From TrEMBL:
PANTHER family: MEMBRANE-ASSOCIATED PROTEIN VIPP1, CHLOROPLASTIC, PHAGE SHOCK PROTEIN A
Residue ranges the record marks as coiled coil: 12-142
Name under which the protein is recorded: PspA/IM30 family protein
Lineage: Bacteria, Bacillati, Bacillota, Clostridia, Eubacteriales
Family listed: Belongs to the PspA/Vipp/IM30 family.
Pfam families: PspA_IM30
InterPro entries noted in UniProt: PspA_VIPP1 (IPR007157)
Keywords: Coiled coil
Length: 212
């Protein structure tokens, strides 16, 4: 399973119950991304402090090293002139500088290690935000498709319902037309209608004339 698939599954598992309670699940994802971005901002501030401390300890360590070298030079110079007492004092200072250097070296290494861990976590968080944005875009597209499909289905259902109503109307109209035709047959023949029939041309008789 790829990283993107894993992050989708994690997000689904963590937000499934929450999404059921909100009208727009995309808003929930937007809120989650906003929270993650805020966490990233705060983490970067903390990381900046740690990195600043790394640089500070590096400078202090170099200062201690310079002192060691300086006292080393002074010891040699004092011995060269036969002043062992002065050389001894310089040696004491050098030993103190060595202790300070080792202490700072340990602190610097620890701080640098913590900084590397923080940078790795920052990279992971940035990756999670990117993947969550990608999932949000995918989920938004799916949601839009689902909503569009729902609207189409609702329209089709309404059309189907309208067809049933049209069928009912068609039956009612046909019934009225049949009734009207029946009433037409029952209508009494007027005197004018009878004379109109006398004036009608007998097509069969006319056709016989052409045959003779």
């Amino acid at each position: 399973m790829g990283t993107f698939s894993k992050i989708k599954n994690i997000l689904k598992a963590k937000t499934n119950n929450a999404l059921d309670k909100v009208e727009n699940p995309i808003e929930s994802l937007e809120q989650k991304i906003g929270n993650m971005e805020e966490d990233l901002h705060n983490a970067k501030l903390s990381a900046a402090e740690v990195l600043g401390n790394v640089h500070f300890l590096e400078e202090k360590k170099q200062d201690a090293r310079s002192q060691m070298e300086d006292y080393e030079t002074k010891i040699k110079k004092a011995l060269s002139i036969g002043n062992e007492e002065l050389a001894k004092k310089a040696l004491e200072k050098k030993i103190e500088a060595e202790k300070q250097y080792k202490h700072l070296e340990s602190k610097h290494a620890e701080s640098k290690k913590n900084a590397e861990k923080l940078k790795s976590r920052l990279a992971d968080l940035e990756k999670s935000i990117s993947e969550t944005r990608q999932y949000r875009d995918e989920a938004n597209a799916r949601l839009n498709t689902a909503e569009a499909s729902q609207k189409v289905n609702e329209i089709l259902c309404n059309v189907s319902s309208d067809n049933i109503n049209l069928d009912d109307i068609e039956r009612k109209i046909s019934k009225k037309e049949t009734t009207a035709a029946g009433l037409e047959d029952l209508k009494p023949v007027s005197l004018d209608d009878e004379f109109d029939k006398l004036n009608e041309v007998d097509l069969d008789a006319e056709l016989e004339k052409y045959k003779s």
